[in-house]
Amino acid sequence: xxxxxxxxxxxxxxxxxxxxxxxxxxxxxxxxxxxxxxxxxxxxxxxxxxxxxxxxxxxxxxxxxxxxxxxxxxxxxxxxxxxxxxxxxxxxxxxxxxxxxxxxxxxxxxxxxxxxxxxxxxxxxxxxxxxxxxxxxxxxxxxxxxxxxxxxxxxxxxxxxxxxxxxxxxxxxxxxxxxxxxxxxxxxxxxxxxxxxxxxxxxxxxxxxxxxxxxxxxxxxxxxxxxxxxxxxxxxxxxxxxxxxxxxxxxxxxxxxxxxxxxxxxxxxxxxxxxxxx
Length: 278
Hints:
Mean pLDDT: 82
Helix content: 25-40%
Number of strands: 11
Largest sheet: 9 strands, mixed
Order of helices and strands: HHHEEHEHEHEEEHEHEEEH
Strand content: 15-25%
Distance between the termini: 48 Å
CATH superfamily of the largest domain: Winged helix-like DNA-binding domain superfamily/Winged helix DNA-binding domain
Number of helices: 9
Low-confidence stretches: 1-10
CATH class of the largest domain: Mainly Alpha
Structural class: alpha/beta
């Protein structure tokens, strides 16, 4: 008996979801739906649902995954070989028409320099004329909208349909001081949500905040807190140095560090490699 080979010509190619195809190929090659989700920066259910839609598109059961068993069905093996070849042909052909120069136009919040710069440093060296803008969130979003930068590294912004965000790191904000006790002087950066949240907490709990000082970065806020009797509000990824945590019952504010791009942006090859490196 001759196995029936899946043929793309039997299907409506306009109904094919390339993202679903990519999730499927990665799941097969990594032997894991979870790892496919992590590689593509999506949730595990998103990959599972995409593969189900792909199976509906070709009217075949492609994968089996029961308990610890995961693999391709016989029809899935035939489909995988065909899909892999066609996807690579498409990617190579389409990629040759894209921007392949080594330009790099990025912006980074001053507060994220310590977290992001060690990663992007090698990419800056690969670009002949890199553009690197350091500034506050609102300024970087303005530069992104004007096309003066292609990628902005920011602490979490409000959801906006114009932008696509890729999470790089998550954690919580911490209050720190030399003594580990709260001071009436608060040092932080621009008046962001975590600052407003803490000020509301302080007012509710009748904590005395006499001075509020704004500096250009969390690194500077922490350094200034070391030099004076003050408390700084900083993300937990920063090394404590000479400071101690200030413990306050009921106080917690989480954050996400993100790479943000406009949805209609076509990244250069170097910029794409930078995003994929996180």
